[in-house]
Amino acid sequence: MPSVQPLPSESEVLPQPYLLFLGDVTEPGYAKTAFGLRDWARERCVGEFACEAATVTTGLPFLTPVQAHAQGARTLVIGVANAGGVIPPQWIPGLVQALDAGLDIVSGMHAKLDEIPALRAAALRLGRKLIDIRRPPRGIAIASGRKRSGKRLLTVGTDCALGKKYTALALARAFAARGVDADFRATGQTGILIAGGGIPIDAVVSDFAAGAAEMLSPDAAPDHWDVIEGQGSLFHPAYAGVSLALLHGSQPDVVVVCHRPGRERVLGHADYFLPSIEETIELALRLGRRTQPAIRCGGVSLNTSHLDERDALRLFEAERERLGCAVADPLRGGAAFERLVTDCLA
Amino acid sequence: MPSVQPLPSESEVLPQPYLLFLGDVTEPGYAKTAFGLRDWARERCVGEFACEAATVTTGLPFLTPVQAHAQGARTLVIGVANAGGVIPPQWIPGLVQALDAGLDIVSGMHAKLDEIPALRAAALRLGRKLIDIRRPPRGIAIASGRKRSGKRLLTVGTDCALGKKYTALALARAFAARGVDADFRATGQTGILIAGGGIPIDAVVSDFAAGAAEMLSPDAAPDHWDVIEGQGSLFHPAYAGVSLALLHGSQPDVVVVCHRPGRERVLGHADYFLPSIEETIELALRLGRRTQPAIRCGGVSLNTSHLDERDALRLFEAERERLGCAVADPLRGGAAFERLVTDCLA
């Protein structure tokens, strides 16, 4: 069973293909929804669109909404995940332009599309749909802490926006390639758009966040793996609570620690230094042990998109020796990544 | 300025006095809202009411809603805080009875009163109010992690429902008695009913929970203290994420660790042993240091309501020697408590 499937349910209701909207983003880290869809659902993206102030690009063709619609696009997907999940006023004209051109809008922001009067009015007038995918399911229970059957892997990070989702997607795909029954479990809006399901864990009321994580990876066959997309960081001044709830509720057998070499400060919180990889491993295991005493670290995933191949391979080797565990960049694949996969499954 | 004031704003809209409703509760730990109001707002409570199956009592006179109304009661307050904040079907007849008798209903449960058809219909028919106080304010921002002026104390626990709110209320009152400008900051429904304000932190969407904690204790005068009611426990399999968000957002200068001697397992999660007091101090300081490097432990608060005075005093002395910090039961007061207050303010 392939681990990353085309959307099984939501895809049937989300009109496709997509035009990716980048807002006025100048920081690539905030455009991760757009990059995620480009990288993991490329066949469903016709191009990108943005405000004039944007400097970030996915590399897909820039199309106006009218051009995109002419090329088949049916939905504009807001490809931005900014702090707070807000839709700033300067995006509204572009979004209305998309509705005018015949596109529906999909958003994973906290802000709800239909609570913005200009969008609501335009959608009503034009008969367009405004679809918010960051609404958690109803009926989430308080976490029980009960041990569930099946195996689980959770990606944890030294920070936000540095590869936890990509790592989980790549590991789920690699597990499946080795004949292991595995599911990618999405916990954020991009993952949900890619996977076609999941729970936006950071949109769940905090008392229920660990319960949502339990719900997301239910009892399964003993040799089945859920590969769960991590959120935030246990060291993040705003999101650590989300990360801890996800860690406790997921009860992972294995964590893979994700980091971007060279990043020294928390994205959007420049007063905060990043923790080291060792600190992150140690704290994730210590806190995770509370609900999963057998938790272990399967290895480290480095986001090396800013390095050339030779420097990246050298870094993997040096970090592997220093940390004493498998170190790889899942997007580079190769022997290092195969070893990471092996160690996770060991 | 007294630290625990009569409700300044909500009190003017919450019709008073109260009849406390105990549902069908048989576990005293779940009736903490009723006990809290009895102990900290006694003058506003005319009595208690419950389903036949209830075995817990506040010791206040049992009154039917009709009797309570005749004695001046204007509102039935749901005095129960069960896991999940649900309103079970067996409570509905009693609640409708209260509406019939002329009482409004106040609830701090997650479940919303007006989403229960029988209550909604009865309230509409009778012109009664259904008031949910567990609705967080709008406009909560993502936590910034910025250091705020003024001083803060947070109570943290080895578990839920063992004295974090009482400890914070007693400390705020003791600070005020020493002429220290202090405010009790409520984070749960009972505290909010007592204090007349606050944010129900466990009802906030998880991404915003640390931001809500920042909002709850804003910049203040350098010698002002916010005494913040803790929630859950960093070791709780369901609520640790809430506790961590509150710890990070509160940026406490001082934590006071609360425990109930003799409790060995997590309330409602009997598979989980409680952490030791030492582990709790150590983890709170370690995690709290992330947003407040100067964090320290002011001492330990023990809930000794089940011990006689002599055993309690012996225990304080033994624990003080073992732990090397002030140990007291705020509800017993005395020299031990005065020392705890002194150490917190030191």
UniProtKB/TrEMBL annotation, chains A, B:
Species annotation: Luteimonas galliterrae
Pfam families cross-referenced by the UniProt entry: DUF1611, DUF1611_N
Coiled coil regions, renumbered to chain: none
Domain D-glutamate N-acetyltransferase-like C-terminal: 142-336
Entry protein name: DUF1611 domain-containing protein
Superkingdom, taxonomy of origin: Bacteria
Ranges where the D-glutamate N-acetyltransferase-like N-terminal domain occurs: 44-136
Annotated Gene3D superfamilies: NAD(P)-binding Rossmann-like Domain, P-loop containing nucleotide triphosphate hydrolases
InterPro entries for this protein: DgcN-like, DgcN-like_C, DgcN-like_N, P-loop_NTPase
